[in-house]
Batch of 3 targets.
Target 1
Amino acid sequence: MSKPLENKLALVTGSSRGIGAAIAARLAAEGAHVIVNYAASPARAEQVVSEIVSAGGHAEAVQADLSTVEGTKALASSVDKVFGGRFGGRLDILVNNAGTVEFGPFLESSESSYDRHFNLNVRSLIALTRDLAPRMIRAKWGRIINIGSCLGEAAPLPGVTLYVATKFAVRGFTRALSRELGATGVTVNNVQPGAIDTELSPDDDGPAAQMMKKLMSVGRFGRTEEIASAVAFIASPESAFINGESLTVDGGWNA
Ligand SMILES: NC(=O)c1ccc[n+]([C@@H]2O[C@H](COP(=O)([O-])OP(=O)(O)OC[C@H]3O[C@@H](n4cnc5c(N)ncnc54)[C@H](O)[C@@H]3O)[C@@H](O)[C@H]2O)c1
C-alpha cells in the first residue's frame, strides 16, 4: 500500500536532534525522502539518517548553519545541487524547525542575543521560505510548516521576551504568506508546541520546569513525537483546506 508522502521531498531544518529529529523520522515513515539539516553535529545527523534508513525510509544529511545568510543560501542551493536531478527541481515540504532560546531578564539582554534569536528563528526561516517556495509554486503543490511556539500567542512565562517576540513574528509571517500563496496550491501553517522534553527545555525539575508543568493542564512535558504527528498531518494531502493556521499542541498551556 502506498504511503501518504511517497515520492515527496521534505526538508526539515535543525533535525539532528529534538523535535526536528522526530519530525524527520515521522515524515520518512510516511514515505517522504527527508533532508536532515544540521549546523554542527554530523554524527548526530548521521544517526538520525541511519535510524530512518534502518526503518526502511530515505534520508540524507546536509550541513548548513542557518544563523548566517551564507548558510541559509547554501542550504537552498543544495536542494537543487544534491536533489534537483532526482526530484526534478521539486521541494514538496519545508519544515522550518531550527530555533534557539536564551533565558534571562529583558533589561539585561544584549545586541548579540537579539542577533542569535532573530537570525535563526526569524530571518533564516523567512529567507529559506522565499528561496524554496518557488519550487512548490511551479509544482502547484507544497507545504510550508513553521515551528513556532505556544509562546507565539501569549507570554505567561517570564524571562523569554526575545524568544516570544520571534515566535509572534513566525505566526504573523505564516498568516501573511498564506494569503499571498493561497491560490497556488501551497499552504503555509504554523505548529506551536508547548513545553517539550528536549535539550532546549530546562534540564532539571527546577522552578522553571515546575512552572511550565503547571501551565500545561495535562501536567507533563510533551514528547517530540506528539509534535511530529501534528506536522505529519499538516504535511499530508488531507490538510489541503488548512491555510494560515497556527495549530497549538501544548498540553493546554494556552487554554
Ligand atoms: N522544546 C520546547 O519546549 C519547544 C517549545 C516550543 C517551540 N519549540 C521550537 O521547536 C523547535 C525545535 O526545538 P527543540 O526543542 O527540538 O530544540 P533543540 O535545541 O533540541 O533543537 C534545535 C535544533 O535547531 C538546530 N540548530 C540550532 N542552531 C542552528 C543553526 N545555526 N543552523 C541550523 N540548525 C540549528 C539544532 O542543531 C537542533 O537540531 C525550535 O524552533 C523551538 O523554538 C520548542
Target 2
Amino acid sequence: MDLADKEVGRTLNAATAPRADYDPAYDPLLDSTPGQGRDYAPSYWIGTAGEPPGDDGPVTQDMDADVVIIGSGFTGLTTAIFLAQEYGIKATVLEANRTAWGCSTRNGGQAQCASGRLKRSQWISRWGLDTALKMHRECVEGMENFKELIKDIDCDPQPGGHLYVAHRAKVMPALEKEAALLRETFGYNARILDAQTVRNEWVGDHEAHGAMHEPEGIGIHAAKLAFGYLKKARALGVKVHPASPVQGWETRNGQHYLRTPGGVVRARAVGVATGGYTANALNPEFRNRLFPILSNSMVTRPLTAAEIEACNIRTHQVLTDTRVLRNYYRLLPDNRLQIGSRSAISGRDAPQEQYRRSLEDGLARKFPALKGIQIDYSWWGWVDVSHDMMPRIVQPNKNETLYYAMGYGGNGVMYSAQAGRRLAQLIAGKGGELDLPIFQSRLPFPNVREMVTSEAFAPFRRFGQRFLYRWYYLKDEVL
Ligand SMILES: Cc1cc2nc3c(=O)[nH]c(=O)nc-3n(C[C@H](O)[C@H](O)[C@H](O)COP(=O)(O)OP(=O)(O)OC[C@H]3O[C@@H](n4cnc5c(N)ncnc54)[C@H](O)[C@@H]3O)c2cc1C
C-alpha cells in the first residue's frame, strides 16, 4: 500500500513504507537534509522491535497546522505528547525519513540522570553552586518524568542504576571526589566500589579499577520506546507525517511556511527537534551551532551461560567507562552484549571496517573470553554535541514563534523526554519560570568563530576534531 496516495489527515493504521534505502554515509555537515523516506539504520533495536506502528502518511498537499514539530525522534514525539496532554495543542510532526529514524532508534538505550556532557563539579565551576543544584533537580525531575512516561510502554526496562567504571587506576581519586560531591552537596547517593567488588560482584571487566555506582539509570529498548511514544502521540490526536523533509522555510507576517516535497505546511509556531541531524540549511538560526559527532554501536549474538560466567557479568544495569571517548555497554535482556563508542569523523568514512574493528578490540580488552565473538548488529548515528557540551531548550527570539530543543551530547535518552516537556511548556507560552541557563540562551558558537562559521571551513572543524580525538586518546590510554 502506498500511503503517500492516501488523503492527509485520515487515520492510517500501517507504517509508511520506506521510499529509499538507508544511507550509511549521510553527513549533516555536508548534506542539506537527511533524505526523504529513507529506511532505518540496521540497528539491533530496529531488528527486534517488530513492525513500526501506523503513522499519518507523507504530506501530499498544502496544509495549515497550528504547531509543527520538525523531527520525530524522542524529542519531537515527547514534545507533541506534552503539548496535547498538558495544553490541548495537537501538533503536526514532520519527519524526513521513517518515524524516529535518527538517533532515537540507534542509541545505547541508557537512560541516565544527566543532561549534556558536563559533570556536576563542572556545573559548579561554570555557573556556581545555586544554579548547579537547580540543574541537578532538573535532571532528577527529568528522571521521574521519564519513569512516568514509560510506565505503560513495553520497552524492556532494565532498572537499578548506572555503573561508571574506572578504566585506569589513576582516575579513581577524581571519581571518589565526584562521588563525595554528589552525596554531600547534591544529596545523590553515589557509591564508590573498589576493583575487587566491581569484578567479583558486578562485572568482570578486565579494565575495571573500581567504579562509581549511581542510584539512577535504566536500560531501555530504544525502538520500542520510540514506537511507544509514536502510539501515545497519535492516540492523543497528534499527526505524524514521515517522508516529509522540510526543504525550505520562510516566515512572513508571523506565519511559518515549511516546504516539503508533498506540499507547503503553514504553521503558527514551529518546534525544532532535529538533533544531530540538523542541517545547516534548515534555518539560519542553526547554522554551525551544533557539532554533530558519530557514535557507533554493536550487539553480539546471545552469550551462552558459560560465556556470561567467564566474563562474570552479574548485572543488567547500564555501564559506561571513564574514557573521554567513553565506552557504553550492557548485557541486554536476551543476553547479548551491546557496546558502543566514538566512530569516524565524517559520514563518508563511517562504513569503514576499522571503526567496527576498534569496537571489537575494545570489547575483547574488557572481556577477553569474547574475543572474536559473532557480531549480529552494527550501526552508527550522529550525536548532537553542542559547543559548550550542554543542551538548549529555547525560544531564541522572543518576537518569533520558533523554538528548539537539542544538544544533549549523547545523554538524550532520558533528558529528551524532559526537554520535550520543557519545549511544550515554551511553545504553549508557559515557560516563564524556566530560569536555568539551558533555557535562557541559544546554542553557542564555537570559540574560534571565524574558522568555523561557514561550511567552507567544515574541513578545518574536522581537522580540529582529529586533533582532539588524538589528544583524548593520549589522555585516555597513555598519559
Ligand atoms: C550510537 C549512539 C548511541 C547513543 N547512546 C545513548 C545512550 O546510551 N544514552 C543516551 O542518553 N543517549 C544516547 N545517544 C544519544 C540519543 O540517542 C539522542 O540524544 C536522542 O535520541 C536524541 O533524540 P532527538 O529526538 O533529539 O533526535 P533524533 O532521534 O536524532 O531525531 C531527529 C530527527 O529529525 C529528523 N530531521 C532532521 N532534519 C529534518 C528535516 N529537515 N525535516 C524533517 N525531519 C528532519 C531526522 O530524520 C531525525 O529522525 C546515542 C546516540 C547514538 C548515535
Target 3
Amino acid sequence: MFDANNRGVLELSRRPGNDICADCSARDPEWASYNIGIFLCARCAEMHRGMGSHISKVKHIRHDRWEESQVQRLCEVGNSVAKAKYEKRVPPCYRIPNEMDCDALLEEWICAKYQREEFYRMERQPFMAGHTEGYLMKRGKEDPRYYPRKFVLSEANDTLKYYVDEKKDPKSSIKVSEINVSFAPPKMEKKSSFQISFVNSAGLTRHLFVYHDDPQTAVNWYNAIRCTKLHRLQIAYPTVSQAQLVNLLTKDFIHEGWLWKTGPRPTDAYRKRWFTLDQRKLMYHEEPLSAHPKNEVFLGHEGYAIRVGVPAGVRDQKYSFTLWTPERWFYFSAEAAVDRDAWIQAISSVIETPPTPQEVSMAARMVRKRGIFSSR
Ligand SMILES: [Zn+2]
C-alpha cells in the first residue's frame, strides 16, 4: 500500500543532501535508516543492517510501510544534519570512501561513524595516536606464504618497522613519508589487505603485501599510516596547503594487469609480465605479488606519447601498442582490445598532465637502468 507516509518519504528523499547516499555519495538512494534519520543506497543499507537494529533500522523508501513518526524523524534529521553530527571531526588524513571503494573501507567507515562514534568523540580515533604496533600477516619475499610479523609505526621517527625476530633488530625500517599504500588491490584476493610500496636504499621499488583478518584493524593501520604521513609532510612542507598534502598520502593503483612486452628487433619474443601503474611509475613484475618490479619507468609529460599498434619492423601481436618516452620506445601487447584500450587510456591520463615537483623528485630517486627494459 502506497499511502501519505510513503509519499512523504519519497518527497524527503528528493531534497538536496538526501538525494545522495549519506555514506558513499551514490546518487538517488532508495533506502533509509529511520532511527538515525538518513537516506542510503542499497549497498550501504546492507552494511547498516550488518551493525544490528540496535544501531540502525533500515527500510526501503517505496517497498516498505512507513509510520508517521519515522517520516517525522527523517524530516527532522536528513543527510546534511546527520553529516554535521557524525562526521564532525573526521581528520583530514582519514580516507573517506565513495561508492567505487571496496567493502572493507566502506564498512569500517560506516561502523566508525555510527557504531563506534569515532568522529564526534576524538578520544576514539586510534589512527591518530602517533604510534601503532601489532601483528600483521606478511607475505614472504621469496615465499608465497604469509607469516605473522610485528609492525611498529612511529610518527616521531617517521618509520614503519617490522620484525622477524622481536629480540633482534627490525628486518626493515621504512620512511613513512616516502611510502605509498594501496588498499586491498584485487590481485591480493583478501578483503582486509594492503600493499606497501617504497623505494629502498638501492633506489629500487619494494612491495610488501600484508593483511589482517579483522577489517577494523587493517583499516586502522591504513589510516594510521596516512595520518603519520600527513603529519610528517606538514613538517617537511610547511608552506604547502593541507589539501595538497592530503592528496599525496596514499594512491590506489591507476591500473594493473597482464601485458606482453617485446624488444625492438623482429626476432625479440613477447614476454608476459604483470604491469602496475602507480601514479607516474609504470612497473612490470614476474608475478602479481612479486616483491620487486623487474623494471620501472617514470612517466613524464613532454616527449611522452602512446598509440595503438607498433612501428613497421617490430613484431606485432594482435592488440599491440607503443609507448614513446624521450629515452626509448616500448612495445606492448594486451590480451584483448578492451584491455589494450584501458591501458592506453590509463597511461594517457598520466602523461597528459605535467608532473608536480614531488613527482619529479621521485623520478630522480628511481634507478635508471637504460636498456634493461627490453632485454629482460
Ligand atoms: Zn552508499
